[in-house]
Amino acid sequence: MPRLARVKIEQGGAYYHVYSRTAGLKGEFPLDSKLCRRKMIDLVELFSGVYCCKILGFSVMGNHYHLVLWFEEQRAMSKEELWKRARLLYPETLLNGWLRAGWARFEERIFDVSEYMRNLQAAFARWYNQTFTRRGRFWAERFKSTLLEDEKRVLDCLLYVELNPVRAKIAERPEDYEGSSVYFREIGKDKWMMPLAAIVGRPGRTQAVRDYKAMLYYRGNVPTKEGQAAIPDHIIKAEETRGFKGRGIYRKRLRHFVDGVVVGSEGFVRREIERLESRGNIFGARIPSPRSED
């Protein structure tokens, strides 16, 4: 069947949830070691400095990972800024030989979420194969991406991503899992990420972290599909004694953010599908049901 085109905003200025699985046999978890999780996160950080984007959150699991990010709207960049970003990837000897066309291509590329993912996954695959003397394809398929309409859908998706370790019964508390963004926010090593205060709309980092964790815990306390875990009631009660407010906030089932291509209001979803159709990007493929919410 023809592949469904990815939905992305060509000139930037959009939120995305991206997701990818590893290749291999069922039961293999190549990302499960601390070494591999940390390398993946280090590369996410590195390429967020190269590309014009901000990382909102992530979760690196045993055989897949989730990433929520914002790509800036395309803009003209100074030679100094381009050089600073390119220098993170290439040696000066190479950059000194770039012609104007090479710099123009680089400037266009760093606003493209697909280019970001190509670099990220290729870099990790090379590192993994070299480190473990492995050959062959590391990632199972093309990465999946979901376009998120606005801050409300972004926050819903971010909670879904951060709760992956809890649902998989790896951790009772989301911030205990070293492969998640909330862990880095908890220990204060999140300066390279989008400030949490900007995401939740709270003044100051301390208040933002506390309020975000309350949302995360209450959402995580709600059971989802059969076989998945939830944050136990006794943990919720313990956190309430330490300052959680707004009992009941975000107590609803999580939406599924993996199979859809667009998440947002019905109007937003339909506009994006019509835009793809007008450009011939659907190729007659079956469109998933719009993930809308009014």
Describe this structure in words.
- By secondary structure, this protein is of the alpha/beta class.
- The protein has one domain: Alpha-Beta Plaits (2-Layer Sandwich), CATH 3.30.70.1290.
- The protein is 42% helix and 12% strand.
- The protein contains twelve helices and six strands.
- The protein has helices at 34-50, 79-86, 92-95, 100-109, 113-131, 151-162, 164-167, 181-186, 196-200, 205-220, 233-241, 266-278; strands at 14-21, 53-60, 64-71, 144-148, 262-264, 291-292.
- The longest helix is centred in the middle third of the chain and has 19 residues, at 113-131.
Distance between the termini: 32 Å
CATH superfamily: Transposase IS200-like
What's the story with the biggest beta sheet?
6 strands, mixed
What's the helix-strand series? EHEEHHHHEHHHHHHEHE
CATH structural class: Alpha Beta
Judged by helices, strands and strand pairing, the structural class is alpha/beta
Radius of gyration: 20 Å
> What percentage of residues falls in helices of 4 or more residues?
40-55%
- Mean pLDDT rating: 84
CATH topology (level 3) name: Alpha-Beta Plaits
Number of domains: 1
Unreliable segments of 5+ consecutive residues: 1-6, 251-265, 281-294
Query: Widest sheet: strand order?
Result: 2-3-1-4-5-6
Question: What's the topology here?
Answer:
Elements: E1 14-21, H1 34-50, E2 53-60, E3 64-71, H2 79-86, H3 92-95, H4 100-109, H5 113-131, E4 144-148, H6 151-162, H7 164-167, H8 181-186, H9 196-200, H10 205-220, H11 233-241, E5 262-264, H12 266-278, E6 291-292
Helix pairs in contact: 1-5
